Each structure stands twice: as C-alpha cells, then as structure tokens.
Fold this protein.
Amino acid sequence: MNISLKSNGFTLIEVLVALVILAISLLALAGLMTTTTKNNAFGGHLTEAATLAQDRLEELRVTGWDNIVNGNDTNPIRGLNYNRAWIVVLGPNSPPPPNDNEKRVTVTVNWNDGMARSISFLTVITR
C-alpha cells in the first residue's frame, strides 16, 4: 500500500506565522505614521513662523526710516502662540544718525509645539 501525503492547502502553523509577520509589519507602519504626522505638523509650524517673520520684514521695508526701530508684538500670534520680536542695529559701514544709511534688521519668531523652537531672518534696509 502506497500512502501519499498530499497537501491541498495551508497548515494552521503556516497561517499563524503569516499572521504574526503581518501584525509586526502593521505595528511598524503605525509607528511610522505617527512620526510622519509629527514631521508634517512641524513643517506647517515652521512655514507659518517663516511667513510671520517675512511679513514683519516687508512691513519694516515700507515703514518710514525713522520708524524702523526695535520692537515686538505685545500679544501672541495665532494658534501656537507665536512670539515675534525684531532688533534693528546700524550697519557696520553706516555713518551715525542722522546721516545713517543702512540698518540691519533681525526678526525672530518663537513658538512651542512641545519643544521650544525659533526661526530668525536677517535683512539690510538702506535709504
């Protein structure tokens, strides 16, 4: 008598091993999703902070020369409480006031999204 052991499907062990591999893969993907979400949120916050700094620089560029002075926003801006401050100093080659012809402006935006962060923009404004 010739007994042949033919398998016409998967064994229970093969199915369980495949399910374990699938579960481990899905857990890894879930961790990757949280990291991706955090990175996207940070990118959005950084873009908003850069836009706020650029807006202040543009406002200072169209401000009268004598009104380009140090300052900050008295109230936090928008959702994450962005704080914006700007520092104005004479350029290194500029004569002293009232004949000054160059001002260096640094705008710094700070925010906290679970971690203290900041971005600074520097520009030179001339008469």
